[in-house]
Amino acid sequence: MDLQRSQLPSALLAWIDRVGCADPLSDALPYSARWLLERWGAGDDHLPLHLVHDLGHLLLRGRDFRFASTGALHRWSDADRAARLAYEDKVLGRWALDPTVLDAHVAIAGMPAARRDAAVAHAVGLALAGPLLAAADVARGNPAHLRAWLAELPAVAADEPEAIHDKVSEEWRAWADAQHAACVRALPGGRLFRAEDLWEIAHLPELPSESARLALRTILGLTARVGAVSPSVALTLRHRAREVPIEAEEADQYPAGGFDAISTRGTFENLVRSEVAYVGEGATERGGVDLFDVRFAENELLFYTRDESPLLDARRDLTVVLHRPAAQRHKHPALEAQTLVLTEALALALQGDLLRVFGPSGSRCAIVWLAERPGDLDAAEEERALLSLPLSAEIAHRRVVLQVARSWDEVPLAGRVVCSPLAEDEAVPRAAWVRVDEAAWHLGDARVEAAHGAPALRALADRLLTMLTRRAKRRPKRAT
Predict the structure, then answer these.
(1) Were 35 and a residue from 22, 121, 134, 298 both cysteine, which residue would form a disulfide, CB within 3.0 to 4.6 Å?
(2) Cα(13)–Cα(394) distance, rounded to whole angstroms?
(3) Where are the alpha helices (DSSP H) in 90-209?
(4) Which of 228, 79, 269, 423 is nearest to 434 (CA)?
(5) Does residue 92 register a pLDDT over 90?
(6) DSSP-assigned beta bridge partners for residue 430
């Protein structure tokens, strides 16, 4: 149903009567009215005031949030008490214990006061707008009517909760109960915010526009769904990284640089030679015990530890080339997003994988948009500005480089993975080439069903990580 202008004041009073936050209405209601107006103005006109009010103040107060039952339990009727306590227990209590709600509160609390209203309203929309669309027979309001009602807000907020309760008719109270029950049934059962929601809330002042927010949400959400590198692939990468090749004439030398310390743990081949002196010592006496065996059992034997090779500390470089970005902005009907969004999510997933496997000082990633045709340069600059927001910390620590290039000569060669709408070019040195012009992508002879979304990208990322341990294909020599 759509709330008419004449119905809106009664509906708002019925919603106010149901709030579960104990803060005085004179202090709390002006905030929640502004949040509701912002959400309704943004198109989320199906959100009820009491849920916006309670979640918004929970985001503002965090662990200081107080339930209405702490001060109003004595004035609730027996029938009303059960419903209100169930709401506090099953909805507000679950939100209060949700770690993502606490994370959102911390992010909002760290913002300047002038920005908190917008951040709370945005967070409420992220948490409630989508799920409550599925609520049956939910009422919808008009932001213009709500804006006109705000003139009456001071008088309403000055009333005591008992006075507001008395002003709500039984008909409107039953209506609010039905609306509340429908909304509660539609609320999600898990955590209220996803990882991309929390990032967006924390960085809301930095996002230039709604379109940028939507684009980043899509990229970060897809990256989160791609997930982390599989343990088997991570283990393979670590093992291959420690395989240090040595020349035949140097085979008698330790490839890891020799010994640098002594420890009580190690293999017998690294046993300190003087420990052999304890073998048989003490065992010759009647009932004696071999001291070597005692030291072994007590973990007192000494072992040399090998020095880590400088080769093992070498940084692992990854270069993801997004070839012809304007062409990759194409949205294939079978794919969930533009091709460029998918390839950027793949690049972020690969960068995160290297960080997990080799640590913050063991890897570096360059994401390069290669502009070759008209329109590529503008698209590349826009995408670089967009990705610089979530990667700002990585860029500051020089773990990630974002670059716009105009030729292959400007693109770093190390760990080069090319995502291109064109067929594989044998003249271009690379570790891997992924053709991304259709719903099915191609990596060499392998077919990648990009229409399958995150699982297909995860399998592709694992395959690319394995290929990165091989040398890049070199440019063939030209005939003279």
Answers:
(1) 121
(2) 49
(3) 93-97, 99-109, 113-124, 130-132, 143-149, 153-158, 161-167, 170-186, 195-202
(4) 423
(5) yes
(6) 473
